[in-house]
């Protein structure tokens, strides 16, 4: 768990109203609509968009390889920026097309044998769960799921009790796709290290939202996407693999970029995390990704995280005060993802009606976090996710729209009853 109380006790200068207005001015999308779908894909800063467009224009006039050569130093610097963001070494990070690829490359690089055990939580994401099931089918591994307690907290002690000599991997999603709960990844890391068990963290929803330090988490592998709280272009992400673990993972894919030396009969794998990359990438979004990381580093995640917490708490409080709305977030530590139901209305209908008013939310489907959603018999939830560029006024507007939607729906139902 990120030490939130400790962070709040530090002398961190909060974002001023003037800074918020400036950050919004640097994001054209905030003038177009209210965007509460940051857990899906955040609005990128204008500088990120401009970086991508300008790069593509240069490719069109100067050539792809020639433009890549021109920006080689900036692209190389991306690894330094990622390392700074998560407190890693640059040879422990690789730029990937998305988090699913990052997660899949390392998970499938683990040598599983029949009877090996994978421990996870009920908050695990869909594609990760599919990976576990595939390993179960192909290698005969056993999947052990640790449920949260009645308050929605992850029981660390239950995890330690579940460990056996056959435990091969602990795989945890830091923040679930369809809940506001934060899983205590630091405490889990201490247990994984104590028992010398491989530890894989899906940090899709946490990187860019709250401070993440891989040394503090003590994880072996960490998978990240760019499009969510990092505000980067879609089709970007990165992978962290602890230096000592890199040689323990099989390479699923290889090309000339993977190796440092090749002969007609042999090759030598490069001695850093970029062995998990391939040569060809979308260089325009790569550079946009770099600019997005630079952007959040310049602001400071330590400064934006308290604002996200405050906005999410405000949203939950307002929603809980509206009759007919049920907030579903649990746990002592919650994030910028707020999930709720409008009683008597389908989540997709709520989303679509809000979109008509230029308010973006999303639908958290059952399959996204299947074990958790099945436990609470949820087929879907409305997911509203805040970022630091959102405002209290936007939350007020969303709640007013929700109330009007509910009134209109109630009136329509009464009218239908009269007709019937």
UniProtKB/TrEMBL annotation:
Source organism superkingdom: Bacteria
Family: Belongs to the class-V pyridoxal-phosphate-dependent aminotransferase family.
All copies of domain Aminotransferase class V, residue ranges: 35-397
InterPro entries assigned to the protein according to its UniProt record, in alphabetical order: Aminotrans_V_dom, Aminotrans_V_PyrdxlP_BS, PyrdxlP-dep_Trfase, PyrdxlP-dep_Trfase_major, PyrdxlP-dep_Trfase_small
Pfam family, one: Aminotran_5
Organism taxonomic ancestry: Bacteria, Pseudomonadati, Bacteroidota, Sphingobacteriia, Sphingobacteriales
Reported cofactor(s): pyridoxal 5'-phosphate
Keywords (A to Z) from UniProt: Lyase, Pyridoxal phosphate
GO molecular function terms attached to this record: lyase activity
PANTHER family, A to Z: BLR4730 PROTEIN (PTHR43586:SF24), CYSTEINE DESULFURASE (PTHR43586)
Record's protein name: Selenocysteine lyase/cysteine desulfurase
Gene source species: Mucilaginibacter lappiensis
